[in-house]
Amino acid sequence: xxxxxxxxxNAKLYGDEICLTEINLDLQEKHNVIxxxxxxxENSPLGEYRRDMTWRVFDEKxxxxxxxxxxxxxxxGDKVAILLMNCLEWLPIYFGVLKSxxxxxxxxxxxxAEEIKYCLDLSDAIAVIFGPEFIGRIEAIYDQIPxxxxxxxxxxxxxxxxxxxxRLTANCCSQPPNIPISDExxxxxxxxxGTTGFPKAIxxxxxxxxxxxxxxxxxxxxxxxxNFLCIPPLYHTGAKMHWFGSLLAGSKAVLLRGVKPEWILxxxxxxxxxxxxxxxxxAQDLLxxxxxxxxxxxxxxxxxxxxxHIGAQPVPPSLIHRWKKYFPNxxxxxxxxxxxxxxxxxxxxxxxxxxxxxxxxxxxxxxxxKIVDDKGNPLQAGEVGELIVKGPGVMxxxxxxxxxxxxxxxxxxxxxxxxARMDEDGFIYLVDRKKDVIISxxxxxYPVQIEDFLRTHDSIKxxxxxxxxxxxxxxxxxxxIELKDGHIxxxxxIIQFCKALPRYKRPRKIIFDKVPRNPxxxxxxxxxxxxxxxxxxxxxxxxx
Length: 544
Prior knowledge:
By secondary structure, the chain is of the alpha/beta class. The chain folds into three domains: 4-258, Rossmann fold, CATH 3.40.50; 306-431, Luciferase, domain 3 (Roll), CATH 2.30.38; 440-532, ANL, C-terminal domain (GMP Synthetase, Chain A, domain 3, 2-Layer Sandwich). It is 31% helix and 26% strand. Strands 2-1-11-10-12-13-14-15-16 form a nine-stranded mixed sheet, with helices on both faces. Strands 4-3-5-6-7 form a five-stranded parallel sheet, sandwiched between helices. Strands 17, 18, 20, 21 and 22 form a five-stranded antiparallel sheet that branches.
């Protein structure tokens, strides 16, 4: 059963019910300024800050786009790239591609023109649909992408080199195209986060996408009464695969454009949100805003909010302990996954296991997991090795990269590249990325352990630990420290604080700087290595 049939079912059963709402509170704030200063709230050029869509309209829009693609010669297996910010059009466009039998290829909205061209070439995309934020980047390369035969533009002020998505689809049939699709058919190409260079293209089938629906609902128990707040980018597997639980349940979701703490709380309150998926930086900012008095919880209606879950990166236990202080009645879950495992869910903590905060959990619904050594042999509890997973959402392959595929897919198991350990109860704890392990004087140092420790300091907002070259030890650990607003902390303060760590784990360099993260919340360590790897810094004297 292809995932598109869930949409068609919902359109038949709940056609007139709102299923998606897009909210842009930045536009609302600017709108209010215009109204106050000029008394012109009508005919404002800023556009709508709230838009709704019913299940029936969602399905019809997907059908119209599918029929447009077919009319233009798109065949089963062709690739269609999607380059849009989160918006109400995103999911209907995605499902339109799937209904046409083509393969959806979502692009990271932070890609440069060069990266867009690289990914178009890699994926063999022959059509692109893009939004107003990307006009300049597409214009810079559109005469360098001869394989792309169609450029569709979704938005106002259409550039001359593209066709209007809105105008073209308005004249297309709203009935399903009835292209035969099976679980084994290719459905989507997602790109790795690119934290180690240019991204790889990850190919998933329709069966893989469907498995994510069932995994998500099994973990978080979505019902028709739930309302899911989606903030992370839809181009990534994480946000979309969590929304797939809403799709399966036939429940509502809200797309919030913006991550200010007051915007998140306002939306949860006014839209009666029950489930929120946050990235670590956003949860941190929300807690900081509460503790500083910038937001007051009593100003919002939050009783219906039942679940907060976090994924996409290691979660500091200290963050969750702080969270439970202000939201003691929330269920909490940590989700682990990769784009290669169709997003989060192959391992999850489970809302009943709050006592195991710090672990990423146990194998998810219909998944298996093991910790193995370099030869693929299972390790005992407590031993650190590579986490491997097996389940219905494992990718088909790295598209056009058989060598890389062979390196990570072995006997049906996906080798994640994450170092982990399992405790006596079967709970898995991430230790670090295999490529991020620092070998200093023959000792393996796992940066995540040090980063979690540093974030327990009252003045530290975020921390990243990287290895820097050292003539004597091979590598040394360097800590990049991002302080909370208004806090003052010296290098010596950090050195003294780190004396609680074993000597070999103590950072040898302390650097005060912002910790860069990508749109899914992962620390961009290659940027830090590039920035500091060749710069000689004053070494922090960590000797006691």
